[in-house]
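ZP: hey, is the iron/sulfur cluster complex queued? I don't see it on the tracker
AM: it wasn't, my bad. submitting now with these inputs:
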Amino acid sequence: MFPITHKRVLSDSVFEMGVHAPKVARKVRAGQFLMLRTDSKGERIPLTFSDWDTTCGEVRFIVMRVGKTTHKLSHLEVGQELADLVGPLGRPTHVGGLGRVAVIGGGVGAAVAYPVARAMCEAGDEVTVVLGARNKDLLVLEDEFRALPLRELVVVTDDGSAGEKGLVTAPLKRLAEADAIDCSFAVGPAIMMKFCAQTAREHGVPCTVSLNPIMVDGTGMCGACRVSVSGKTIFGCVDGPDVDGWGVDWEQLMSRQRVYADLEREADSEYSKGCSCTL
Amino acid sequence: MPERDAAERACVFDEVALGYTEEQALAEAARCIQCKNPTCIEGCPVRIDIKRFIAHIQLREWAEGVAALKERNALPAVCGRVCPQEDQCEKTCVLARKGEPVAIGRLERYLGDYDLACDLEHRCKPVVGEPTGRRVAVVGSGPAGLACAGELRRLGHAVTVFESLHAPGGVLTYGIPEFRLPKQIVTAEVGVLEEMGVELVCDAVVGATYTIDELMGEEGYDAVFIGVGAGLPVFLGIPGENLNGVYSANEFLTRANLMRAYEFPMYDTPIWRGRKVAVVGGGNVAMDAARTALRLGAEEVFLAYRRTEEEMPARREEVHHAREEGVRFEMLCAPTEIRGSDGWVTGLVATRMELGEPDASGRRAPVCVLGSEFGIECDTVISAVGTRANPLLTSTAPDLELNGRGYVITGDDGSTSMPGVFAGGDIVTGSATVILAMGAGKTAALAMDDWLRSRDGVIARPDVR
Ligand SMILES: Cc1cc2nc3c(=O)[nH]c(=O)nc-3n(C[C@H](O)[C@H](O)[C@H](O)COP(=O)(O)OP(=O)(O)OC[C@H]3O[C@@H](n4cnc5c(N)ncnc54)[C@H](O)[C@@H]3O)c2cc1C
Ligand SMILES: Cc1cc2nc3c(=O)[nH]c(=O)nc-3n(C[C@H](O)[C@H](O)[C@H](O)COP(=O)(O)OP(=O)(O)OC[C@H]3O[C@@H](n4cnc5c(N)ncnc54)[C@H](O)[C@@H]3O)c2cc1C
Ligand code: SF4
Ligand code: SF4
Ligand code: FES
């Protein structure tokens, strides 16, 4: 069992959680993820490490409540336990020697963008962060990003309630046109990554994306996470999550993410019936 | 052996074969003529003293029978159910020549179940040897790892089993369905090991959470056994494979067995329940996938195999059960494309095959009949055409010698190119059988014992072998 050691609400549907998992904490590198189960009937879901502390053996992740498992997770408090936590899985993000890089985090993707941007800064890369969200309330980790030695932090919201109004592709385009970046890294909803990769490609800027296909084991055993990249099928959990965004078959990825949408909705609404939470 | 009725069982996950009653077991045991030269034993990969365990049944000496079995096979309740007996012990039983061999597997199962029905205290447990002060890490809790752990513990070593999933058992847990091997049996067998003092650490991926070097270094283990199986699914390599509704058998069975998706939404993991399901392959895995699909409510399940039924590697009993339950067999049929619309599977394009000259495996190779393409409508395709070695662990152990296909190279005793590191089971042989994996685990345990004792030459071997 894995005791919960920290919890912080970041917005209506987003929260940060810390769990005591010392064996895992000592191995984590930016860009890697974990799989967890809340309880013995639970589903295994992947979440990216947002932070980790080798001294106290804590790992942290940031969760957006979207369905039953993340809903269940949102009800767990410090002192309670997770049934399972496995990791670190996936290949770490490549950092260092990148030169001038734009890191784009959309929505809860900011949780991935944060440790990646931090690792890039530590490795001597010149990082510009573009942080996007639908509105001000969904913007997470802004203060944490501000504490990093970034070249620039650009905040964008769909409705203009914070920072610029618009989509994250606008600042990306601006940076590319001004020849201010050598490469880019995008993480967030598939649709956002798709347009980032497209924008970057139009300007000849390489774009690494952190994929989020549906997973079961996270260790290469089932193939649920397969994605076509440059005409080749890869397993997102072991060959990724980072891949070359130019080559991803986005329509396929988005279609595969929806396989269980109806079933999941049913399960969550059933669960939510017996639940009076506000989160 | 009594079985649940085909129509009744095809929609539930309860075990199909019900097992002998005491009278039936005695009657079957009575058929064994206790040969002077018991050829049955040659057919068993781990050389169980079949003649003796059956003699004990004849005399109603149940506990003695269990002990005879367990000298060679720690999991009789498992092997009695899943061993391909017709190609092994039962094939070489003298009575096979005269028609019906003694049902050795079923008798083994009877004793295995007898043992599991006893409370933990009265169960037949190997005596744990004097502590040697040596610690061994076993990676993977499939049949190879479990057999190795039990044997090492018997020899007095401290044993920790590391398992990447959240539950132990390997294929016994995530692959072979409940209706063929109830999970309660696996749990009970693992319970015996824990009772013997084997420590079990789930959620530990070696290659990620630990490396082999770390286990041997900072984690302080004196030896490591690698029994990680061959769990990397192979896909067909045809167009349309990433459509929604296409599963590897591994994913389909893992969702159903390990995650209990058939009890969704009581259990949280969903599974796509197709109405018309095509399973590609002809082994036990294909049979399990097809029969699971039926139980999940499919109206029609057919199995496409590119050779004929004769070449099918699945156990005869499984083929028979699958057919009885209503699985349709499309033999000499090789899929060439999966068709879809809106991202979902709508059908399969296949070509007819015919058998040509024997290939390297000695089986006649299927060749396609030109212009014989035809379409089959379906909404789910399950690929059960084999697995390969998963590089997750091996890629982090550069000193571990692998063959061209990524499997670990070992000596006959399971030793690898790394001192103190041994391996066995599917990660060495490629996909094989439960009993071979267990045999390899046990062989390696004995070699590891030698290695551990010879290393400093101070601990005398107790007389437990
Ligand atoms: C490598 C990786 C890293 C991830 N990191 C994070 C993270 O740091 N924070 C975070 O909040 N989420 C992250 N996700 C997504 C997270 O795993 C899903 O949100 C979660 O599995 C949803 O489970 P649920 O039962 O609550 O929702 P469900 O009811 O299962 O799903 C609700 C909706 O989310 C979609 N969905 C389901 N599973 C996934 C999935 N694996 N990836 C993307 N969408 C999915 C479905 O299409 C569905 O419409 C990550 C996913 C991957 C693959
Ligand atoms: C669906 C199916 C049906 C079958 N039916 C039969 C049958 O009827 N009869 C028969 O004899 N054989 C059958 N087999 C084959 C048999 O199950 C295997 O040959 C046998 O299980 C191999 O045992 P193993 O211990 O080598 O590996 P596995 O059983 O595969 O166990 C390996 C274990 O190691 C774990 N692991 C993997 N990587 C790591 C890592 N890096 N760190 C930690 N742990 C790890 C895995 O999660 C798994 O639990 C079947 C196989 C399948 C898939
Ligand atoms: S282990 Fe398998 S081969 Fe050996 S006696 Fe038992 S059923 Fe037969
Ligand atoms: S060969 Fe057959 S009849 Fe003879 S001892 Fe073995 S099981 Fe009995
Ligand atoms: S999640 Fe199973 S192989 Fe990637």
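AM: back. DSSP finds 19 helices and 16 strands in chain B.
ZP: great, adding it to the tracker
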